[in-house]
């Protein structure tokens, strides 16, 4: 009787180690796809926030600008504006502390940078899972293949039958584990690279926005692209 190929046949004919390897690869695949889908939806959402952040500078005052940013607490651009406003108010009204040795520009920069760092850590969460899956899944699949080939050769030796039809089946089934490892690793690697590129574009937009917010709260004007003060000055006190 000919050997039947397929994952189901490998599962039914495999031992405890083979099934464990298959379960691990399945869990890694599910985890990586969940991370890819969740982080991809986050990137789409944050890119929409980045586009809406451009409308912030077309507002007559800070209050109306905040309305354009919305009320979603997960919006990093809204959070940057709130951090800048609170840092400015805190620096002006606080009693004597060590940070009073910093001028308002350095203090606002520090607060904005802390907010961006927190968002960066949240944005990059989960990428370690993809990196781990992409780097380890091929080797886990290869381990399953080596283990399967070993037991196939032992079984062939015990039976005393070494014809090609008796060898090809067990060896081919063992090689399926390597294919499974690659099938798990390739989407994880591609997803990791795509998410890193998406995160980079969002962080670039956020850093640029934070630079303008810093200039706004420190000088009362937005800094233009060429580094000069823009003529479109938004009054700080009107919306503060």
Describe the overall structure.
The accessory proteins ExbB and ExbD seem to form a complex with TonB. Keywords: Cell inner membrane, Cell membrane, Membrane, Protein transport, Transmembrane, Transmembrane helix, Transport. InterPro entries: ExbB/TolQ_transport, MotA_ExbB_proton_chnl. Residues 100-205 form the MotA/TolQ/ExbB proton channel domain. With 240 residues, this protein is an all-alpha fold. Helix content is 77%, strand content 0%. The chain contains eight helices and no strands. It has helices at residues 7-13, 16-54, 62-69, 76-93, 104-123, 127-159, 164-219, 236-239. Helix 6 (127-159) packs antiparallel against helix 7 (164-219). 30% of the residues are buried. Mean pLDDT is 79; it is low at 223-240.
């Amino acid at each position: 009787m000919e050997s039947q190929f397929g994952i189901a046949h490998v599962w039914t004919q495999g031992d405890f180690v083979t099934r464990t390897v298959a379960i691990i690869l399945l869990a890694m695949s599910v985890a990586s796809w969940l991370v890819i889908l969740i982080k991809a939806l986050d990137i789409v959402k944050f890119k929409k926030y980045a586009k809406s952040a451009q409308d912030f500078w077309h507002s007559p005052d800070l209050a109306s600008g905040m309305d354009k940013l919305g009320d979603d607490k997960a919006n990093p651009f809204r959070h940057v504006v709130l951090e800048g406003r609170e840092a400015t108010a805190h620096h002006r009204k606080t009693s004597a502390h060590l940070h009073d040795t910093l001028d308002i520009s350095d203090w606002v920069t520090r607060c904005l940078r802390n907010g961006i760092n927190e968002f960066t850590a949240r944005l990059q969460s989960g990428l370690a899972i993809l990196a781990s899956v992409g780097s380890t899944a091929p080797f886990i699949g290869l381990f399953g293949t080596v283990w399967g080939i070993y037991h196939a050769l032992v079984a062939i030796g015990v039976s005393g039958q070494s014809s090609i039809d008796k060898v090809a089946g067990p060896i081919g089934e063992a090689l399926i584990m390597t294919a499974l490892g690659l099938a798990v690793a390739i989407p994880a690697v591609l997803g990791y690279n795509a998410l890193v590129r998406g995160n980079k574009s969002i962080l670039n937009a956020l850093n640029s926005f934070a630079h303008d917010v810093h200039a706004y709260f420190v000088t009362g004007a937005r800094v233009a692209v060429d580094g000069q003060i823009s003529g479109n000055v938004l009054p700080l006190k009107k919306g503060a």
